[in-house]
Design a protein that fits this description.
The protein is α/β, with parallel strands linked by helices and 569 residues long. 50% of the residues lie in helices and 12% in strands. A hairpin with a 5-residue loop joins strand 13 and strand 14 (383-384).
């Protein structure tokens, strides 16, 4: 479709230039020609409002401009155009010739699993950091959403020619992991019979802490009591991080997400890179001393206040290792870095970008997107509040377990991923568990998967009847004359544009929306039209090519989302 739009754009630009040369249009420059699909096939295939955009410059009514433009287009010399009409105040509706429909099916048949891909990225290296949950507890459903979005964005960017990788930044240093060690220490001593102990302020109350501490008692008894308190807490901190991080990795693998790189905040801190960052900022004059701490002149970058980078006790705030980590990303050769952050990091965006500027990195090198909150809701729409510190939250594994009880393990992952992807990143997501576990047509992911399964069933039925599909070059596609067939092909032609746009805008939700719309066209067609007709084999073979194309696009789209394309349901 992009190629077609480019060709039609050139035709319309040529018509505008011809009208200017003839003295019929008085304009100084030809604008970009915008296009959009028409709402119904009766209004053509694509439409452009270019005449409306030229009205002010030409000082003419848009419809009059449209009439002049159309007058200078000779459809007889442009095989791609079948008919041009003017609608409303001046929209130009273009009906393409049927040949482009047939060429679309030929393209899909030739490309197969590569249909929808391109080389726009030219191999440029992109790193997407996502999830990066603190190793202080199991992954919750907010992390699940980030995992689905990040994984899909990597797939999309790779599909359009970038070399994108998945990276998880383990926050295994700082105050939160210290409180993890302290929380484990309390539960460990309680398991050994000590009383009157409380989890420290800011510590972790979850049952998973108690269970881990009891495991320590089972395997080592009271031997850790022989250690000094600080040494014991440090030991529990490291063991707790390793244990919880192992669980997080297992949960992500179960969810179909496999990271290419695992980076460590602790390793960054121990590498000496934060010290180099501080030295650089000092040389640039961005630091000053006040109130016993070291401050960064964030106000030099337009922020409303400066921020502490070294506390009174000499410890770095999290900004310093963060800046060092992003410098490390740049040094590894990534041309673009995308950080997907949780909703509690909104205030972190401008400061992190300012640190990147202070490091002298390009303004457009770092992109930051917030993955908004996920709210679990029941059939009545009631939300549940969740908190890791209080121990009241739904883990990603809990969610998959609950879904799996009804739809099975693989479909549980499919459903969860789809629901996490079906809304824009910037929108809060209400996860309706009742709808998610409904194995019926009202569940959107099953609606799409069922369309793919129906395509597979047609070929299975054909095999049973002794009907095999032919190569597309041996089939006359002109037998595809039904309006619904043309509507299907038009939708199939949009897929490469959807993939490219989804990748470029970082909006993964466009793909599930597209697949749902394609399925919405296919299901009525399947119900109303017979594909396998031994009495009309030419039409049968043409329709088999169409069904094969639908099957290919559905599978390619689902694969980008990390969702299975079942052959039967």
């Amino acid at each position: 479709m992009d190629t077609i739009k480019t060709e039609v754009c050139n035709i319309i630009e040529g018509a505008i230039h011809a009208a200017v040369a003839a003295g019929e249009l008085a304009i100084s420059e030809v604008p970009t020609i915008p296009f959009s699909p028409t709402k119904t096939p009766e209004h053509g295939d694509i439409a452009t409002p270019v005449a409306l955009g030229l009205a002010k410059q030409a000082r003419m009514a848009p419809r009059s401009i449209a009439e002049i433009i159309v007058k200078h287009i000779d459809s007889d010399t442009h095989a791609i155009i079948h008919q041009i009409d003017i609608a409303g105040p001046g929209f130009i509706n273009i009906q393409l010739s049927d040949n482009w429909l047939y060429e679309t099916l030929q393209t899909i048949a030739a490309a197969q699993k590569d249909y929808g891909t391109c080389d726009k990225g030219a191999g440029k290296r992109v790193q997407i950091e996502f999830v990066s949950a603190n190793p202080t507890g199991p992954l919750n459903i907010v992390s699940g959403r980030a995992a689905a979005v990040g994984d899909t964005l990597v797939n999309l960017l790779n599909a359009i020619g970038y070399e994108a990788i998945r990276e998880f930044y383990v926050n295994d240093a700082g105050g939160q992991v210290q409180r993890l060690g302290e929380s484990i220490d309390v539960r460990y001593r309680q398991a050994l019979g000590e009383e009157a102990l409380e989890i420290p302020e800011g510590g972790y109350q979850g049952e998973y802490i108690r269970e881990f501490a009891e495991t320590l008692v089972e395997t080592a008894g009271d031997k850790y009591l022989e250690l000094k308190t600080d040494e014991r807490i440090a030991r529990f901190r490291d063991k707790g991080i390793a244990h919880i991080l192992g669980q997080q990795k297992a949960s992500l693998e179960r969810f179909g997400v496999n990271f290419d790189v695992w980076s460590s905040e602790k390793a960054i801190r121990e590498s000496g890179k934060p010290e180099k960052i501080i030295q650089l900022f000092q040389e640039q004059g961005y630091l000053y001393e006040a109130e016993g701490a070291t401050w960064f002149r964030m106000t030099d970058f337009g922020d409303d206040k400066d921020c502490v980078v070294i506390r009174q006790d000499g410890e770095y705030t999290y900004f310093v290792p963060d800046a060092a980590y992003h410098r490390d990303k740049f040094d590894r050769g990534f041309t673009t870095v995308i950080d997907l952050l949780g909703p509690d990091h909104q205030g972190h965006i401008s400061r992190l970008k300012n640190f990147v500027k202070a490091l002298g990195l390009p303004d457009d090198w770092l992109e930051i997107s917030i993955i908004q909150q996920v709210n679990l809701v029941d059939a009545a729409g009631k939300r549940e509040d969740m908190s890791k510190r209080s121990g009241h939250f739904l883990t990603l594994d809990n969610l998959i377990d609950e879904l799996a009880e009804t739809v099975g393990e693989q479909f549980a992952v499919d459903v969860a991923r789809y629901f996490f992807l079906m809304r824009a990143n910037s929108s809060h997501l209400d996860f309706n568990i009742e709808l998610a576990i409904t194995h019926a047509s009202e569940n959107p992911v099953f609606y799409i998967q069922y369309a793919h399964a129906r395509c597979c069933s047609i070929f299975e039925q054909g095999s049973e009847q002794g009907i095999t599909s032919k190569p597309v070059e041996e089939v006359s596609l002109k037998h595809l004359t039904e309006l619904m067939e043309h509507e299907l092909i038009r939708k199939l032609a949009e897929f490469p544009s959807i993939v490219r746009l989804s990748a470029e805008t970082r909006e993964a939700h466009r793909v599930p929306h597209y697949l749902h719309e394609l399925s919405g066209i296919f299901h009525p067609y399947y119900n109303q039209h017979r594909v396998l007709d031994p009495a009309d084999m030419e039409k049968t073979h043409a329709r088999l090519i169409l069904i094969q194309s639908v099957q290919t696009v559905l599978k390619n789209g689902l694969t980008l989302l990390g969702i299975s394309a079942p052959a039967a349901m």
